[in-house]
């Protein structure tokens, strides 16, 4: 691998990260203006809505929402205080702590969805064709798959 990037690679990277940050910020603002959950809280509730029995181990939840363990713990503390989820140790692995969606959390998730969906449509989807979205999904899927592969250090043997 090279340590230099050509202009096209650097431009693609900067466009990707700038577009991501800008759209996330716009959706965050839309949610705040509508007095809905912040996007990070919504993402936690979404992961739980999609999970079997609406419960996930804390490490699975951290991976699903791409937060550090400490960042997730603080967020889960807030969501638990607000009654949107509860922690539970009863499950297949009693050593693990699970985050479990509550009815109040499900209702908050459902209430925020229209604003979130409008934000996705307005700030993202309307600017791409179906074919472009499929292509983007495929391309970013390859990047994600490569990033999630375990990397092994190269042997120092020659």
UniProtKB/TrEMBL annotation:
Organism: Dictyobacter alpinus
InterPro entries found in the cross-reference section: HTH_MarR-typ, MarR/SlyA-like, WH-like_DNA-bd_sf, WH_DNA-bd_sf
GO biological process assignments: response to stress
GO molecular function: DNA-binding transcription factor activity
Protein name per its UniProtKB record: MarR family transcriptional regulator
Domain HTH marR-type intervals: 1-145
PANTHER family: MARR-FAMILY TRANSCRIPTIONAL REGULATOR, TRANSCRIPTIONAL REGULATOR, MARR FAMILY
């Amino acid at each position: 691998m090279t340590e230099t990037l050509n202009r096209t690679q650097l431009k693609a990277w900067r466009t990707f990260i700038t577009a991501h940050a800008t759209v996330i910020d716009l959706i965050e603002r839309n949610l705040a203006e509508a007095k809905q959950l912040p996007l990070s809280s919504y993402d936690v509730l979404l992961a739980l809505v999609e999970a079997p029995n609406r419960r996930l181990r804390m490490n699975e939840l951290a991976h699903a929402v791409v937060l550090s363990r400490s960042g997730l713990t603080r967020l889960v503390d807030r969501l638990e205080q607000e009654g949107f989820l509860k922690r539970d140790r009863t499950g297949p692995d009693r050593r693990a702590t699970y985050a479990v969606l509550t009815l109040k959390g499900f209702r908050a998730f459902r209430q925020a969805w229209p604003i979130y969906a409008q934000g996705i449509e307005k700030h993202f989807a309307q600017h791409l064709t179906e074919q472009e979205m499929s292509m983007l999904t495929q391309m970013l899927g390859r990047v994600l798959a490569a990033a999630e592969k375990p990397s092994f250090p190269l042997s120092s043997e020659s």
